[in-house]
């Protein structure tokens, strides 16, 4: 199967262009996608990478060769594609490699209503069929409709979070030369927001820094700009703008767990008693705050497929991950960094305190952040840690190893793609968190590479 086996991942397609992923492959996937979904029409969008437009056009040719009409939205963020799939009721394809380096590209595929397609829900079948079709898709017969969906996307988000009456806010946004440079101006137009844009020029070579706000070095410019301009907050988006990172008026990072709790409280005010999903490395404060506001917290494994599956199963109103992905029932259970950012703006602009004081109520514990250790034997390292903490707390293995005591917890889990173990620890006070973190890392170090 060649490159297809390598580039088809659990939830999307990603590879180096053109060595692993090229236009004949994209064309074959377009045909296979239509065969799998049985769709009469599909919608397609792409990010700003140099290879994205040609790859998306190849996919369109493949889809049209199977008789499907194609609505081509052109440039868009991943959540704009989800909006298109949800509002038009069509299966969709987004061409992006998110925060990956410039030489990469990929696809995120969904059924009508933004329902994700993963390896166990159709992606493997698309891969296998595309492998048979490469180079032999045939001539196009379906029609092509170019459609600007940016205005509709922005308008829809503004119906979900009303920002028209907030106090004037000064906001710095770092788009990282990614798709937020395209979507933020449309969403913010006419709002009481004084916008300072950083790196809004669409450039898939990422000349200033990687479009990955989870890495602290990529936030430095935003933090400086917030402090220098006296802004109320800063927002950083990844390349396809589906993730959003927040910094407060001091330029300090706000934990995605605090953002999850803040948005959960706002959604529970609209939907009393609703379910809220959180993954198992979000702060212990998240389920506590959800319960205090009458909601039902549900804990899941790490990964957007698990979040989305649990949201669909429970009808949850909202879901948050510590990776700064935020999911909304009102947005077809899909994730939208922009929608999360708008909730933060609404919470801040609806009262007079600075953001650091607003989020302090949602930041109850001291967290280590995610720490990676290269190990020679993941299973042996987990066994040694389990043995070392025997009898000291409750143990569960929903995702790796979690040990919980009244005033601390940690989770140690294996990477699916690298010989790494990922540690997250949290405690009521910083010294306890540090002690637990150091103890786990010392045990893991016994089987380090």
From TrEMBL:
Give the required cofactors: Mg(2+)
Q: Which stretches make up the Alpha-D-phosphohexomutase alpha/beta/alpha domain?
A: 6-130, 153-251, 259-365
The segment(s) forming the Alpha-D-phosphohexomutase C-terminal domain are 370-441
Q: Enumerate the SUPFAM superfamilies for this protein.
A: Phosphoglucomutase, C-terminal domain, Phosphoglucomutase, first 3 domains
Q: Which UniProt keywords apply?
A: Isomerase, Magnesium, Metal-binding, Phosphoprotein
Q: Which Pfam families match?
A: PGM_PMM_I (PF02878), PGM_PMM_II (PF02879), PGM_PMM_III (PF02880), PGM_PMM_IV (PF00408)
The record's family statement is:
Belongs to the phosphohexose mutase family.
Which NCBIfam families would you find in this protein's record? PRK09542.1
PANTHER family in the cross-refs: PHOSPHOMANNOMUTASE
- Name recorded for this polypeptide: Phosphomannomutase/phosphoglucomutase
Record organism: Actinomadura luzonensis
């Amino acid at each position: 199967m060649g490159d297809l086996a390598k580039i088809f991942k659990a939830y999307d397609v990603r590879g180096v262009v053109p060595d692993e992923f090229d236009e004949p492959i994209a064309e074959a996937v377009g045909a296979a996608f239509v065969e799998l979904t049985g769709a009469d029409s599909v919608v397609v969008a792409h990010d700003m990478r140099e290879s994205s437009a040609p790859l998306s056009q190849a996919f369109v040719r493949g889809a049209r060769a199977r008789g499907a009409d194609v609505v081509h939205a052109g440039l868009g963020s991943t959540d704009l594609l989800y909006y298109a799939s949800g509002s038009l009721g069509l299966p969709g394809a987004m061409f992006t490699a998110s925060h990956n380096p410039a030489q990469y590209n990929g696809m995120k595929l969904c059924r009508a209503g933004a329902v994700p397609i993963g390896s166990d829900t159709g992606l493997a079948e698309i891969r296998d069929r595309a492998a048979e079709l490469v180079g032999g898709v045939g001539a196009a017969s379906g029609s092509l409709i170019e459609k600007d969906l940016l205005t509709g996307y922005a308008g829809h988000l503004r119906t979900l979070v009303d920002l028209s009456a907030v106090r004037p806010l000064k906001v710095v946004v770092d788009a990282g030369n990614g798709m937020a440079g395209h979507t933020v101006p449309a969403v913010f137009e006419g709002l009481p927001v004084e916008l300072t844009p950083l790196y809004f020029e669409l450039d898939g070579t990422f000349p200033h820094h990687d479009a990955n706000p989870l890495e602290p070095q990529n936030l430095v410019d935003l933090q400086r700009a917030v402090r220098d301009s006296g802004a109320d907050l800063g927002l950083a988006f990844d390349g396809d703008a589906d993730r959003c990172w927040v910094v407060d008026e001091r330029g300090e990072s706000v934990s995605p767990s605090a953002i999850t709790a803040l948005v959960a409280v706002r959604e529970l005010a609209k939907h009393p008693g609703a379910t809220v999903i959180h993954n198992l490395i979000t702060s212990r404060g998240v389920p506590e705050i959800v319960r205090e506001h009458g909601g039902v917290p549900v804990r899941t494994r790490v990964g957007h497929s698990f979040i989305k599956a649990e949201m669909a199963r429970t009808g949850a109103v909202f879901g948050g991950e510590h990776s700064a992905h935020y999911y909304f029932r009102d947005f077809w259970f899909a994730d939208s960094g922009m929608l999360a950012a708008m909730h933060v703006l609404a919470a801040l602009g609806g009262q007079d305190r600075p953001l650091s004081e607003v989020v302090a109520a949602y930041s109850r514990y001291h967290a280590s952040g995610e720490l990676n250790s290269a190990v020679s034997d993941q299973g042996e390292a987990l066994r040694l840690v389990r043995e070392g903490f025997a009898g000291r707390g409750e143990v569960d293995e929903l995702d790796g190893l979690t040990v919980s005591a009244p005033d601390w917890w940690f989770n140690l889990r294996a990477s699916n793609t690298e010989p790494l173990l990922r540690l997250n620890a949290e405690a009521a006070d910083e010294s306890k968190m540090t002690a637990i973190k150091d103890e786990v890392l010392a045990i893991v170090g016994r089987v380090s590479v």
